[in-house]
């Protein structure tokens, strides 16, 4: 399929319904070569669902999901459980979806700081080690599109920054498009070209604003400021109540808020500081 | 050479075991033991149909199992009943349906015990030909889809995201399993086919360090069980299927013994 503007993937007002409830709805999204798009949002906001729609693992119930013909993908899923019955070493796992030379494997593992793990069994890896190995496998394929579902979960603090820097570097060297998910609303990469905030729908989107000089930011993040990380700041004009309904700034209630809410007057009632709350 | 019934049984059994081993690994990895049971119970329905329409047993059993496999995949995707409830329903319905059909056909005498537990006396040259033709087909397809099926087994989402069509691979795998069940029916019997899939694979697990190695060792373990089981069956007049399964069980128990640790303990013991 030929997509306009050389895009790798495209979602057009796509949504997935399970039973009577929508997991996510009305998502517009596209990733171009060399572009990093980050999805943020709380648990259950539809980030993984959106990524799976983008990859064609889930078919959208409404809207459309399109991929470039012959698109090669490197995917790091959110979870990977290896059963005892499966004798799977890191060396074999690296070649899970395509054949790779020993050299390609060791270079990729080196990049993610996991080269010493190559002889180990997958099920003996710790959470952070598993993430590094999965990332290495995905980049060793030299994909057109890299989809990373929470790539730094369980990775230690120093490793987290190293991996974010590596992702940025991979984008530059491979020229691939990257779709990344973070459950962390505050910390997204400085290199992200586009940030999409999900909460069952697209709440807002835009380039990450550089607020590292902001006093509130310094107070909140102190030590973590400036090291390849940035904060994406936004406020909402509506609040998602615990029962799933939405309260708008004018006090009206509705069951969902399809579509995007750009250009609204942002004001988040009951929250004293905008940064760090969504 | 194939004039002797025992040689025929041996040749047929080894052929079945070589195919069942690698496929059984996937049954274990994918946690589909109950699925194997369901298909093999349906084999009895296949036997009844083959007698009713007077067609080759292996073909009828294969056909019935394949239809059931496809039915299972589509029913599971529609998300009506839970997977294991669905399997239980189909498994026992097919078994009961097969037994009822056989009882109705008063004009045929069926060796029910042979169907359920295997009968080495019944192996013909045609059976051997079908086992090796079917087995070669299954192994060829398995080798061709190996990487994709294995990736889909490790993580369907990952395989799907990278374009390896895990759902199609699962369907192909189920059809391959149905074929193996059809060709194993005479050797081990409908009730014990799953054992021939699972136990050699389980015995291979502890001594394997890669999935490919486990598949090959499972084939060897299966062949060894067939040889051991059939000799026992011949010498002590025990039913062939259960004897093979018991031999496989013995291999599995042997694989559980921590041999490496025992050897080191004996060495250090002798030094003291």
Automatic annotation (TrEMBL), chain A:
<keyword id="KW-0378">Hydrolase</keyword>
<dbReference type="InterPro" id="IPR027417">
    <property type="entry name" value="P-loop_NTPase"/>
</dbReference>
<keyword id="KW-0406">Ion transport</keyword>
<keyword id="KW-0472">Membrane</keyword>
<dbReference type="GO" id="GO:0005524">
    <property type="term" value="F:ATP binding"/>
</dbReference>
<keyword id="KW-0547">Nucleotide-binding</keyword>
<protein>
    <submittedName>
        <fullName>Zinc import ATP-binding protein ZnuC</fullName>
        <ecNumber>3.6.3.-</ecNumber>
    </submittedName>
</protein>
<dbReference type="InterPro" id="IPR017871">
    <property type="entry name" value="ABC_transporter-like_CS"/>
</dbReference>
<dbReference type="Pfam" id="PF00005">
    <property type="entry name" value="ABC_tran"/>
</dbReference>
<dbReference type="InterPro" id="IPR003593">
    <property type="entry name" value="AAA+_ATPase"/>
</dbReference>
<dbReference type="GO" id="GO:0016887">
    <property type="term" value="F:ATP hydrolysis activity"/>
</dbReference>
<feature type="domain" description="ABC transporter">
    <location>
        <begin position="6"/>
        <end position="224"/>
    </location>
</feature>
<comment type="similarity">
    <text>Belongs to the ABC transporter superfamily.</text>
</comment>
<keyword id="KW-0067">ATP-binding</keyword>
<keyword id="KW-0862">Zinc</keyword>
<dbReference type="GO" id="GO:0010043">
    <property type="term" value="P:response to zinc ion"/>
</dbReference>
<keyword id="KW-1278">Translocase</keyword>
<dbReference type="InterPro" id="IPR003439">
    <property type="entry name" value="ABC_transporter-like_ATP-bd"/>
</dbReference>
<dbReference type="GO" id="GO:0006829">
    <property type="term" value="P:zinc ion transport"/>
</dbReference>
<dbReference type="InterPro" id="IPR050153">
    <property type="entry name" value="Metal_Ion_Import_ABC"/>
</dbReference>
<keyword id="KW-0864">Zinc transport</keyword>
<keyword id="KW-0813">Transport</keyword>
Automatic annotation (TrEMBL), chain B:
<feature type="transmembrane region" description="Helical">
    <location>
        <begin position="214"/>
        <end position="234"/>
    </location>
</feature>
<dbReference type="Pfam" id="PF00950">
    <property type="entry name" value="ABC-3"/>
</dbReference>
<dbReference type="GO" id="GO:0010043">
    <property type="term" value="P:response to zinc ion"/>
</dbReference>
<keyword id="KW-0813">Transport</keyword>
<comment type="similarity">
    <text>Belongs to the ABC-3 integral membrane protein family.</text>
</comment>
<dbReference type="GO" id="GO:0055085">
    <property type="term" value="P:transmembrane transport"/>
</dbReference>
<dbReference type="InterPro" id="IPR037294">
    <property type="entry name" value="ABC_BtuC-like"/>
</dbReference>
<feature type="transmembrane region" description="Helical">
    <location>
        <begin position="41"/>
        <end position="73"/>
    </location>
</feature>
<keyword id="KW-0812">Transmembrane</keyword>
<keyword id="KW-1133">Transmembrane helix</keyword>
<keyword id="KW-1003">Cell membrane</keyword>
<feature type="transmembrane region" description="Helical">
    <location>
        <begin position="171"/>
        <end position="202"/>
    </location>
</feature>
<dbReference type="GO" id="GO:0006829">
    <property type="term" value="P:zinc ion transport"/>
</dbReference>
<feature type="transmembrane region" description="Helical">
    <location>
        <begin position="6"/>
        <end position="29"/>
    </location>
</feature>
<feature type="transmembrane region" description="Helical">
    <location>
        <begin position="240"/>
        <end position="259"/>
    </location>
</feature>
<keyword id="KW-0864">Zinc transport</keyword>
<protein>
    <recommendedName>
        <fullName>High-affinity zinc uptake system membrane protein ZnuB</fullName>
    </recommendedName>
</protein>
<dbReference type="GO" id="GO:0043190">
    <property type="term" value="C:ATP-binding cassette (ABC) transporter complex"/>
</dbReference>
<feature type="transmembrane region" description="Helical">
    <location>
        <begin position="85"/>
        <end position="108"/>
    </location>
</feature>
<comment type="function">
    <text>Involved in the high-affinity zinc uptake transport system.</text>
</comment>
<keyword id="KW-0862">Zinc</keyword>
<dbReference type="InterPro" id="IPR001626">
    <property type="entry name" value="ABC_TroCD"/>
</dbReference>
């Amino acid at each position: 399929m030929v997509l306009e503007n050389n895009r790798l993937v495209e979602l057009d007002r796509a949504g997935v319904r399970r039973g009577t409830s929508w997991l996510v709805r009305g998502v517009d999204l596209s990733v171009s070569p060399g572009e990093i798009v980050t999805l943020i949002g709380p648990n259950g906001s539809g980030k993984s669902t959106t990524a799976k729609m983008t990859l064609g693992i889930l078919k959208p119930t409404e809207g459309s999901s399109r991929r470039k013909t012959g698109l090669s993908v490197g995917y790091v899923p959110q979870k990977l459980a290896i059963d005892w019955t499966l004798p799977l070493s890191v060396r074999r796992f690296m070649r899970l979806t395509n054949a790779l030379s020993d050299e390609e494997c060791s270079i990729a593992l080196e990049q993610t700081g996991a080269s010493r793990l190559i002889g180990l069994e997958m099920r003996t890896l710790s959470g952070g080690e598993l993430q590094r190995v999965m990332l290495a496998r995905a980049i060793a394929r030299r994909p057109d599109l890299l989809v990373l579902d929470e790539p730094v979960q369980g990775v230690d603090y120093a490793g987290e920054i190293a991996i974010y820097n590596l992702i940025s570097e991979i984008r530059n060297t491979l020229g691939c498009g990257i779709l990344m998910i973070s459950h962390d609303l505050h910390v997204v990469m400085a290199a992200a070209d586009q940030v999409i905030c999900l909460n069952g729908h697209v709440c807002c989107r835009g380039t990450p604003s550089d607020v590292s000089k902001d006093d509130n930011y310094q107070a909140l993040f102190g030590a973590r400021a400036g090291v390849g990380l940035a904060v994406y700041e936004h406020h909402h004009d509506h609040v998602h109540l615990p029962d799933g309904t939405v309260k708008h700034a004018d006090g009206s209630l509705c069951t969902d808020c399809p579509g995007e809410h750009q250009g609204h007057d942002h004001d988040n009632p009951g929250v004293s500081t905008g940064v760090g709350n969504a | 050479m194939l004039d002797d019934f025992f040689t025929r049984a041996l040749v047929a059994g080894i052929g079945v075991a070589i195919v069942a081993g690698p496929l059984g690994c996937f049954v274990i990895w994918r946690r589909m033991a109950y699925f194997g049971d369901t298909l093999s119970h349906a084999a009895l329905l296949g036997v009844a149909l083959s007698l009713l329409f007077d067609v080759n047993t292996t073909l009828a059993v294969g056909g019935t199992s394949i239809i059931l496999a496809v039915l299972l995949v589509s029913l599971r995707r529609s998300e009506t009943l839970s997977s294991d409830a669905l399997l239980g329903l189909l498994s026992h319905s097919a078994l009961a349906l097969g037994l009822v059909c056989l009882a109705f056909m008063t004009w045929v005498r069926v060796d029910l015990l042979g169907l359920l537990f295997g009968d080495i006396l019944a192996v013909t040259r045609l059976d051997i030909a079908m086992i090796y033709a079917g087995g070669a087909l299954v192994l060829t397809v398995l080798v061709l889809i190996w990487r994709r099926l294995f990736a889909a087994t490790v993580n369907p989402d990952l395989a799907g995201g990278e374009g390896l069509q895990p759902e199609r691979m699962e369907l192909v795998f189920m059809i391959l399993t149905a074929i193996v069940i059809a060709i194993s029916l005479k050797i081990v019997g409908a009730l014990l086919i799953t054992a021939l899939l699972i136990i050699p694979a389980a015995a291979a697990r502890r001594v394997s360090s890669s999935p490919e190695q486990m598949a090959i060792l499972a084939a060897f373990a299966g062949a060894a069980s067939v040889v051991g089981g059939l000799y026992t069956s011949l010498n002590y007049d025990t039913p062939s299927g259960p004897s093979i399964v018991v031999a496989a069980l013995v291999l599995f128990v042997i694989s559980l013994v921590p041999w490496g640790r025992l050897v080191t303990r004996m060495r250090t013991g002798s030094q003291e």
